[in-house]
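SECTION: protein entry
WANTED: fold as tokens:
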Amino acid sequence: MACPYFYPVEPFQDREWPTPPRLPLGDPYHGMCLVNPTRETRPEMDTLRHYCNLGYARGKCPRFPQDAAPDAVRFMVAGDHDGIVKLQYVVEKDHTPFEHGPLEYSLAEKRFLVSHSNELLRRQAQAYVESYVRRKTDPQTRAHHPHRR
């Protein structure tokens, strides 16, 4: 469950987090905090590891707004057939669904066919799909990180 204000930019290199736990975006990501959308902030490594990539940062991360509606976002693959990856997303508050829905991604076109209006959620879903495809097609990724899906 990634932080709902985290905009993932690029995956970590293996040496930056050699054995991460199972992560909501599949792989650990560097990125930006967009709590204030007019002021992008690049979180430090500890914040990326403990809050941005894992979510539920309310009361822990100094940037996380206490009055925020969502706490975390999670994704799952609901289907992968004929070049279309179907996802389900859930935005959570207090470990309870706050919002949910389907997304569909075309592997050939490298774009969402069914998307979401929220740019942060779209980018997190894109990062999740990229991680999913990497794990699915690169046996080395699974060999080095057997706990990843």
